[in-house]
Each structure stands twice: as structure tokens, then as C-alpha cells.
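Example 3.2
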Amino acid sequence: MFPIKKMLIIGLGSMGRRRARLTKRFFPAVALAGVDSREDRRAHFAREYDAAVSRSLEEAIKSFAPGAAAVCTSPEQ
């Protein structure tokens, strides 16, 4: 059994979407939430994974209380 129940994906571009797909494939019971500054990415992620999304990292941590996070942002940001 995987000990993490909730995972936050920070950055919902191609890297973030890949981490979400892999997480759901191997650990389907893990609930996902996402953070991104772009509305279109948040909307797509919310629909595809039935997940909570946020523009703010602080808000996501406070409302979702994840057990783990995957930072999937560009190194240039």
C-alpha cells in the first residue's frame, strides 16, 4: 500500500501532466491537486483528473494539505 493519500502537482505543463498520469496509473487511490498560474492549464487538469486546482501554492497547501508534492516547473521560472 502506498502511504501517500494526497499529492500536489506544482506546474501543470507537460512535465506536470506526465507526473499526474504516472501517479494515477500506478497509484490510482492517490488524490491529486494542481497549482499553475495559467487558467487554461488549471481548467484542463481539473477536468481530466477531477482535481482541485489553485493559482497559489500557499492556498493549495492550506486547502488540500498534501502528503507529497512534485515540482514540475521550468528551471527558468
